[in-house]
Amino acid sequence: MGFQVLGQGSSCRTHQPCAACRMLRRKCESDCLLAPYFPGDQVEKFAGVHRVFGASNVIKMIQMVEETRREDAVKALVYEARARLKDPVYGSTGAIFHLQKMVQELKVQLESIRARVRESQTQRDELLGILRNVNHLDLVPPINDTVFDGDSFMLENDVLMAYDPVKFPAECDWFI
Predict the structure, then answer these.
(1) pTM greater than 0.85
(2) CA 66 to CA 15: how far, in whole Å?
(3) Where are the domains of the chain?
């Protein structure tokens, strides 16, 4: 009952009604404007669009759009209808606001992460500087028994740098 048989000579083909004609209980002609966009197995897709916009308004909107862009227009109508059914007040605008809020929150998180990365890089650079200084200490000759004999401290036969606390006491006002 839901099929229309179109006869052309000896060959017959079956035309299945689109979701719009099936839902509206109309005869689906071969030149039905809604058939390419609402196949017969997608009744719920048309039902949402019909509930929000009405079948005659959907037809008018599709006719207003050039034929090459009609598929995109129908996709937009279906998306808006689903969004409007979910959120009758805001529709797809509510989804846009929600996504904009998420973008703002992600920007804040990204900036926080960038700040932590910069802080980590600074700490890394400081540690590398310390390690380089420690490596430079390896270039200074090690202290051996000839330089430091326990009583005095000399650097490489430098007599003026010798320090003997008994022979050369430190003059300090805090030492009594």
Answers:
(1) no
(2) 25
(3) 19-86, 92-136
